[in-house]
Amino acid sequence: MSARWTTAVLDPQTPAGLAVAHSPEGFLVGEEGALFQRDWLKRQGLDVLCEHGIGHFDGQPVFLLELAKAARIAGCSWRGLRTFMLEGDAETYTVLGYAAQIGTWAREHRFCGSCGQPMSQIRWERAMHCSACDLRSYPRISPSMIVLITRGDEVLLARSPRFVAGVYSTLAGFAEPGESAEDCLVREVREEVALEVKNIQYVGSQCWPFPHSMMLGFHAEYAAGDIVMQPDEIEDARWFNVHDLPPLPAGRSIARYLIDLYVARRLGHAEPAFPGQ
Fold this sequence. Notes:
- It is an enzyme of class 3 (hydrolase).
- Its EC number is 3.6.1.-, 3.6.1.22.
- This protein folds into two domains: 5-108, Alpha-Beta Complex (Nucleoside Triphosphate Pyrophosphohydrolase); 142-267, Nucleoside Triphosphate Pyrophosphohydrolase, CATH 3.90.79.
- By secondary structure, the chain is α+β, with helices and mostly antiparallel strands.
- The longest helix has 19 residues, at 90-108.
- The chain is 21% helix and 35% strand.
């Protein structure tokens, strides 16, 4: 994580500071970026669902204004988080990635999931509280595995119907209750392409705020089987030589890192930096 940015639970009653505005259309962006003076932003007549103090940037407190809907503000526009990942600077993406997860959680927990009563924000911890049934709700993180399967100079890459046209990536899937990340990996590979793997090695993890995943990255070697694609999940899957790869995922994604790392090691090149470092 950037030294300029640290997460923290801040009381919204704290004066001044910076703020970001998040709506179903993305983040508000002005000439200077997505971080605004908080006092100015709160004077713009925004339809605020809730406000959360989320951390410090360059020593200044940062707050999130989660909005019911986007609003037109002169000189500003709305931009999705993926755009910041692809085009924005890493510092801004780190702040907004965290803000997006807190905003999604706050929006989805305005009412108690047990009794349906309105929930209130606890000021000293990142939690929502139901006074009617005493339920506390904390931000959710969904663990998932992502794996690059290799066979010598070949890597297994696949396409989901939801991908950008032409792009191939690694296999991934969410862990089921009671399942380890390694169990999840083996099951997902069997389900999606009907292959068996061996020599599973953990590589690293990445927060994936679309909307609240923790991607656990692995490398595994091909063991047995022929590719059989899972209907409705896998549009295409094939082996690619490291010298002839298709269009790949965004450079800041752990999927791209897993691919670039293996290719670099296979070809004797310098290893890439882990996303965010």
